[in-house]
Specification:
The complex is a heterodimer of chains A (about 500) and B (about 160). Chain A has about 500 residues and is α+β, with helices and mostly antiparallel strands. In chain A, about 40% of the residues lie in helices and about 20% in strands. Chain A folds into two domains: about 5-50 and about 425-495, no CATH class; about 55-420, Cytochrome-c3 Hydrogenase, chain B (Orthogonal Bundle). Chain A has helices at about 55-60, 65-70, 80-90, 100-135, 145-150, 155-175, 195-225, 230, 275-280, 300, 310-315, 320-335, 345-365, 415-420, 420-435, 440-455; strands at about 15-20, 30-35, 40-50, 185, 185-190, 240-245, 255-260, 265-270, 280, 290-295, 305, 385-390, 395-400, 405-415, 470-475, 480-490, 495. In chain A, the strands form five sheets. In chain A, strands 3-2-1-15-16-17 form a six-stranded antiparallel β-sheet, covered by helices on one side. Chain A has a four-stranded mixed β-sheet with strand order 8-7-6-11. Chain A has a three-stranded antiparallel β-sheet with strand order 12-13-14. The longest helix of chain A is centred in the first third of the chain and has 33 residues, at about 100-135. Chain A is globular, with a radius of gyration of 22 Å. By secondary structure, chain B is of the alpha/beta class. In chain B, about 35% of the residues lie in helices and about 20% in strands. A five-stranded mixed β-sheet of chain B has the order 2-1-3-5-4. In chain B, helix 1 runs parallel beside helix 3. Chain B is globular, with a radius of gyration of 15 Å. Classes of the chains: A alpha+beta (about 500), B alpha/beta (about 160). Chains A and B meet through helix 1, helix 4, helix 5 and helix 6 of A and strand 3 and helix 2 of B.
Chain lengths: ~500, ~160
């Protein structure tokens, strides 16, 4: 591990490199490197520079607003927040997961599969495929979806259409691509009619075929670059996520499972409503993002990874045949119990995309999906906890309300927070192994972003107003004087200042 | 394939202060559409993405509406051209980059597309519209009425401006 690079001793005598913001991730983060006079990396950190204040945003609102309100926390995975909040407020109206009407449960799962599918397609094809197809240090003009569409038109177009299809699933189930109001306390507010089901069925076989092709593509890319892909930014870590009661891959509802780097069980079938007993969060002064860890293993050793790599590693099987075959091949390539390659996040992500496409087809053929018994009711409770496997990993929503149904306390642990320590460790590994001692250039620094991007982090929610995303790279000498500066302007032009 | 109605596409986050200007303008247009039966199709999203290129297919005319921190005050109105700007390296794309994606995948020029930007100032989570944004919104609303009165590219070209 590379924790010794978290804090350097003689910081004011070191050169500082800033990558700000990290591009092709959601939100605003920056990487700082401190170098000595020989360009040896002495400190490397991923900082989150925006405080989001989610909890304050939510407190004081009536609970029934939450499924709509929390979607506005994030422009990329609004449905994940929507469903996690819905699961939490189910409990506030006295409805446990087992008591949700069957059709409501299946509609929520369909909605969630659509969401995960579109998010994974966006991340792989739009944000990561340029690195993977053209090389991590390729010319910056090549590192975009436009270049992929130009040089690999079939692959690029598949990405666009997979993403579009996932959005259409969301639109059919919830009424809109975003801001939909599909899930409500105790169920769903809209049934899926035959025309909507048939509309989605028309293209699903094509989506599955493209899912298969996507997995084949990433497997080919990954295995063609061994051992580099198995070593780049790679960490031997713990992994956590939900699984089915029998250990199968689960994205919507299940028990918490955590495994260590050797594949040994840390916890299994753990009721997520007691997450506070097993997960604590550490605060560090240099970043707004907390560092969660498993209490049983302590702060030093208890950090873990979540998301596609964790889920595919942790599960015993996948209940759709094509994704299961892909999972078996994925695990076999590593030749040990767990796959630790950080770049294997991409491979696992596309296995999940395929699983989502297969699952959508199964659900669309299930007669329950058009059922109209959609809402259950129970006795009011004052506390609700909803946990879901969002595209980026395990997402916790926890609310308390008063007698007037107003939220008095909210706690959210978003997926990216769970990967905070791992992303920092990956940054430090790349800095130490690939950058240290070399003259730093923009293509070289992209290696840091490639490592971060593999986690598909969501660093803040979506405010996209025109003119807000510049990039600056600054090189300062040992006295802190600026000796070089690259600027990427909001119009896309890059220049040396 | 028949030509689809004029597309009015607003994007922004309703809970992010002045970022709500676009969706709020779409709400106002929707109310007008209900009373006047305008031949337009409305679309809203948090931010622009690659698949939105497919929403431009078979359109004769498209209007994007967005809040802007750096645009003209109280609003700006320009015709768009495809541009391979670096917004395609983020989760949120610019409308010009969406047009570039359209051009790349369709191998043809996109339909005439225009961008209405409404000047905003504050974009904090949980904030409402700023006082300045409310004034800018009112000014932009009057301008939108002119756009909706003549849904043709030639009429809109005559209305393009960088400041009002």
């Amino acid at each position: 591990m590379y924790e010794h690079l978290e804090t350097a001793e003689n910081r004011d005598q070191l050169k500082r490199i800033v990558v700000d913001p990290v591009s092709r991730v959601e939100g605003h983060g920056k990487v700082t490197l401190l170098l000595d006079e020989h360009n040896k990396v002495q400190q490397a950190r991923l900082h989150i520079v925006e405080f989001r204040g989610f909890e304050r945003f939510i407190q004081g609102r009536p609970y029934w607003e939450l499924p709509v309100l929390v979607q506005r926390l994030c422009g990329i995975c609004p449905v994940s927040h929507h469903l996690a909040a819905a699961k939490a407020i189910d409990q506030l109206v006295g409805v446990d997961p087992a008591n949700l009407p069957v059709s409501a449960d299946k509609l929520r799962r369909l909605l969630h599969f659509g969401q995960v599918m579109q998010s994974h397609a966006l991340h792989f094809f739009h944000l990561s495929s340029p690195d993977l197809l053209f090389g991590f240090e390729s010319d910056i003009g090549k590192r975009s979806i436009i270049a992929v569409l130009a040089d690999y038109p079939d692959i690029g177009l598949q990405g666009v259409k997979l993403r579009k299809y996932g959005q259409e699933v969301i639109r059919m189930v919830s009424g809109k691509r975003v801001h939909g109001t599909g899930a409500i306390a105790g169920g769903m507010n809209k049934a899926l009619d035959k025309a909507e089901r048939d509309y989605l069925l028309a293209d699903i076989d094509q989506m599955i075929a493209w899912g298969v092709a996507s997995v084949a593509l990433i497997q080919k890319v990954h295995c063609a670059n061994l051992p580099y892909y198995d070593q780049f930014a790679t960490l031997r870590t713990n992994y956590m996520g939900l699984t089915k009661p029998d250990g199968g891959l689960e994205l919507y509802h299940g028990g918490l499972r955590a495994k260590n780097a050797e594949g040994g069980t840390i916890l299994d079938h753990f009721d997520y409503c007691r997450y506070n007993d097993i997960i604590h969060e550490e605060v560090r002064s240099w970043t707004y993002m907390k560092f969660p860890y498993l209490v049983a293993l302590g702060q030093q050793n208890g950090w873990y990874r979540v998301g596609p790599l964790a889920r595919v590693n942790n599960c015993d099987y996948i209940d759709t045949p094509l994704a299961e075959a892909a999972r078996v091949a994925f695990k076999a390539h590593a030749n040990e119990a767990m796959v630790h390659s950080t770049l294997a996040f991409h491979w696992a992500r596309l296995i999940e995309l395929l699983h989502c496409a297969e699952s959508i087809k199964m659900l669309l053929h299930d007669p329950d999906i058009m059922g109209t018994d959609l809402v259950a009711q129970g006795e009011k409770r004052y506390e609700g906890i909803g946990v879901i496997e969002a595209p980026r990993g395990t997402l916790f929503h926890h609310y308390q309300i008063d007698e007037n149904d107003i939220v008095t306390k909210a706690n959210l642990i978003v997926s990216t927070t769970s990967n905070n320590m791992a992303m920092n460790e990956s940054v430090r590994q790349v800095a130490a192994e690939y950058l240290s001692g070399r003259e730093l250039t923009e293509p070289l620094l992209n290696n840091l972003e490639v490592a971060i991007r593999a986690y598909d982090p969501c660093l803040s929610c979506a405010t996209h107003a025109v003119g807000k995303m510049p990039l600056q790279l600054e090189l300062l000498d040992a006295e802190g004087r600026l000796i070089d500066k690259l600027v990427k302007h909001s119009d896309g032009q890059i220049g040396r200042v | 394939m028949p030509v689809k109605p004029v597309l009015v596409f607003a994007y922004g986050n309703l809970s992010r202060g002045d970022d709500a200007l676009g969706p709020l303008m779409l709400d106002a247009i929707e109310r007008q559409q209900e009373t006047e039966g305008l031949p337009i199709e409305l679309l809203s999203d948090f931010q622009l993405q690659i698949e939105h290129a497919l929403d431009l297919e078979h359109r004769a005319l498209v209007l994007f509406i967005d809040a802007s921190v750096s645009g003209a005050t109280p609003f700006g109105f320009t015709q768009l051209s495809p541009a391979k700007d670096n917004s395609y390296t983020t989760h949120a794309m610019s409308p010009a980059a969406v047009l570039a994606v359209y051009q790349t995948i369709k191998k043809q020029q996109p339909p005439p597309c225009f961008l209405l930007t409404i000047k905003g100032e504050t974009f904090g989570l949980g904030e409402g519209l700023s006082a300045a944004a409310k004034q800018n919104f009112a000014a932009a609303s009057s301008f939108v009425n002119h756009l909706l009165a003549d849904l043709t590219a030639s009429a809109w070209r005559n209305l393009t401006l960088t400041s009002a």
